[in-house]
Amino acid sequence: MSCKIEALKNAVGTVNIPADKSISHRAVILASVCEGITEIKNFLNCSDTDATVSCLKKLGVKVYRDFGSLVVKGKGMQFALNKPVELYANESGTTMRILSGLLSAQKFTSIFDGSTSLRRRPMARVIEPLNKMGARITGSAPRNSSRNSADTAYPPLSIFPAKGKLEGIEYELPVASAQVKSAVMLAALYADGPTMINEPCACRDHTERMLKLFKAKVEVKETVKAKGKKETGAREIFCYPASKLVSPGELSIPSDFSSAAFFIVLGLLLKDSEIMLKDINLNPTRLGLLNVLKRMGADIKEVILESGEGREPRGNLTVKASSLSGVTVASDEIPLMIDEIPILCVAAAAAKGKTLIEGVSELKVKETDRMAAILYNLRQAGIKVSITPENSICIKGGFNCKREILFKSFGDHRTAMSAVVLGSVLGNCSIDEISCIKKSFPDFISLLKSLRSRK
Question: Hey, what's the torsion of the CAs at 36, 37, 40, 46, to 10 degrees?
C-alpha cells in the first residue's frame, strides 16, 4: 500500500540525527576481539547493525544493553568455537564483508548467508585479497542476476580455516572501497608480516582510526597518483600484525553524516528554513556531499567540537535555505559521497542549470540498482535526467510536474528517504512503501513529522 508524503512549507529547528552506522559496525566488531570490556555510547539501533550484533553473539561474544550503552565483553583475537557456525547478515553488506576479514583467520568453518537482496551483491572483491593472504573463502554463482559484472562470487560464503598463518600482502584496491579495505586490514592483524594497501583515492577511514583507538599499529601515507590527465589523492595504508587489541574502555559514536544528508538537502530546498544538526560526524572522508553542496551555493556552517588521534571529528551544522546552481562532480569525488548520491540528485533536481555526476557505476551494485532508481523517480517528478555511456548522471534542474506523483523505494532505504525528501518539497506525492528505511534510519519519518509541526 502506498504512503502519502506530506508537503512541508519550511523546516526550522534542531534535528537529532541517529548514530553513525559505519562506525557502529566497526566499534562492536573490534570490541568483540579485544581484551577487556568496552562501553559503546550512542550505538545505532537499526536492522543492519542488529545483523552484526546477532552474528557476534552467535560467535560467542557477550553483548548487552546497559543504561542506553552497548556493552561488549571482548573474547580476544580468536573466537572459542570448535565446530562450524552458520551466520546470517540479513541485508547488511558491511556485516558480511568486514566480518569475513576476521573469520578468515579463525579455526572453524563459517557459512555466511544473507537476504535475497544481499545475495545479489558481489563478494569477489573481498574474497580475492583475503585468499591472496592464505584465507580459504568461496562464494556462490549469481542467482538469476542480470548484472554484467566481472565480480562473479555472491553469498552465501563458505569460510574455511586457513591451512597456516595468513600472509601479509601488498594489495591495490581496484576501486576505492572502505568495506574491502576494512576486511583486509582486519585479516592483516592475524598475518605473519605487515600488509600494505594501495588506495587509488581516499575513502572512509573509520577502520584506520578505530584500530589505533584499540592500540593496533596502523600507518597511513598520503601519495599522489596519475589518473589520465589528472593527479588524484591516493593513500598507502600499512597494517601490522597484533597479538592483542586493547579496549579503550568506552567510546562515543557521533551522529551519522549520511543520515544527516537528507535533512541538509531538505533545509536547503525549503524556503525560510534553518536547521541545526548536532554532534555530526565531520570526518573529511565522509564530507564529499558537503563540499559539493557548498560549490552549488549552499549556506551551511560547521563548528568542530572534537577531533584527535583515533577519534572521529564531530561538530554542529547549521543549514539555511539556499538557491543552488548545477555543478560537475568528478569521479574521484564519488568515494567520499557514494551513499549520498541519491539525495545529491534531489538537490541537483532543484538547482539552476545542469549537474553532471561522473563515474557512479558502483550505484548499480548497492542494495538495488540505485542508478536505475534515481532515473525512475526523478522522471516521475518530470525532471530531465539521463545516464551517459560513461555511467555518469546528467540532471537538468527544474520542477515541471503538475500531476500526482507516485515514487518507488525499490526496497532501498536511501532511495526511499531521498524520494520522501523530494516529495516533501514538491507536494502531492506518494511512495509505494517505506519499511526499508528501518535498515539505517528507523526514526526518519518521525523526525520529519516533528518538523511538520513547525509550519
Answer: 100
Question: Where does residue 220 rank: exposed (0-12), middle (13-18), buried (19+ CB within 10 A)?
Answer: middle
Q: CA 282, CA 304: separation in Å to the nearest integer?
A: 8
The whole model's pTM is what? 0.93
Task: State the cell numbers at 47.
Answer: 536492522
Q: How many CB atoms neighbour CB 271 within 10 A?
A: 9
Rg (CA), the chain: 22
Do 233 and 91 share a structural domain?
Answer: yes
pLDDT in tens, 52-104: 999 999 999 999 999 889 999 999 999 999 999 999 999 999 999 999 999 99
> Per 3-state DSSP, what percentage of the chain is helix, strand, and coil (rounded to 5)?
35, 30, 40
388 & 402 share domain: yes
Residues in the chain, pLDDT under 50: 146-148, 228-229, 231, 453-455
Q: How far apart are CA 368 and CA 380, in angstroms?
A: 18
336, part of any domain: yes
Question: What CATH number did the domain enclosing 36 receive?
Answer: 3.65.10.10
Q: Report the C-alpha gap between 77 and 70 in whole angstroms.
A: 20
Domain that holds residue 131: 21-144+152-244
pLDDT for 392-416, tens place per residue? 999 999 987 778 999 999 999 999 9
In which order are the strands placed within the sheet that holds 328-329? Answer: 328-329, 354-357, 393-396, 384-387
- Catalytic residue, from 151, 332, 339, 412: name it: 339
Distance CA 419, CA 205 (A): 29
Report which of 96, 163, 167, 164 is spatially closest to residue 130, judged by C-alpha positions.
167
Phi-psi domain of 398 (left: phi exceeds 0; alpha: psi -120 through 50; beta: other): left
- 339 is an active site residue: yes
Contact (Cβ atoms closer than 8 angstroms) between residue 29 and residue 98: yes
Q: How many domains are contained in the chain?
A: 2
How long is the chain? 455
Q: Tell me, yes or no, whether 81 lies in a domain.
A: yes
Residue 20 CA to residue 365 CA, distance in Å, equals 22
